[in-house]
Amino acid sequence: MIFNSHVSLLQVSAFLILSLIFFLFLLRALAARTRQTGGRSDGRSRVGILLQSLGIASAGFGFIAVRLGPPSTINLIETAAVVVLMGGSVALFALSSRALGRNWSLVARTRSDHELVRSGPYAHVRHPIYLGMLLFLIAMAVAFRHWPQLLVAIPIFLVGTRIRTRLEDQLLEQSFGQEFIAYRNSTPALLPRLSA
Question: Which of 5, 66, 67, 98 is most open to solvent, judged by the fewest CB atoms within 10 Å of its CB?
Fold first, then answer.
């Protein structure tokens, strides 16, 4: 039997190590935040944060049967997928939070000295951190072999993401007007275009 229900210690370890790196970048971004000066905020984005968190949690919910022996071919393929997905997740979060600098925040808000960032990952998508979080969710499901959980996890996560992107886009449009509208019209929200 080529496919078994056991995950290898290698794929779980890869996910956990890269998750730790992701959370270290998150802690760095949280520590670098500065006090908000003026601007606007929208607390309704907390509903989106909650739904995104529930989506991610539901991808990890369930039994994990770890196989301690040598990994099978499918385990090695899954490990490679975890490394690629988590590598993308970590890179997107690290590059995006760095590009945002003092503009980065957990809740939807703008500052009185807010800048419209369109460089780095923001040149390709308006909300690259949420794309990184989606990759994290999928990597977790692959690492733990929780494929069925994706049927629940992804829709919940996307509803939360939609709430957050809509509110953030509204705040940016209020702050930057036509400059943001032009950016929104030329740059997809979550998934980059495959062709130029």
Answer: 5
| Residue 42 to residue 53: CA distance in whole angstroms | 18
Structure tokens at 97: 């939070």
pTM attached to this predicted model? 0.91
Taken in order 80, 81, 84, 85, is the CA torsion positive or negative?
Answer: negative
| Burial letters 117-143, b for 16+ CB under 10 A, else e | bbeebbeebbbbbbbbbbbbbbbbbbb
Euclidean distance between CA atoms 49 and 32, whole angstroms: 20
Domains, the chain, ranges and CATH?
A: 7-30+42-186 (1.20.120.1630)
Taking only the tens place, the pLDDT of each residue in 141-178 is 999 999 999 999 999 999 999 999 999 999 999 999 99
Q: Hey, what amino acid is at 77?
A: I
Mean pLDDT of the chain: 90
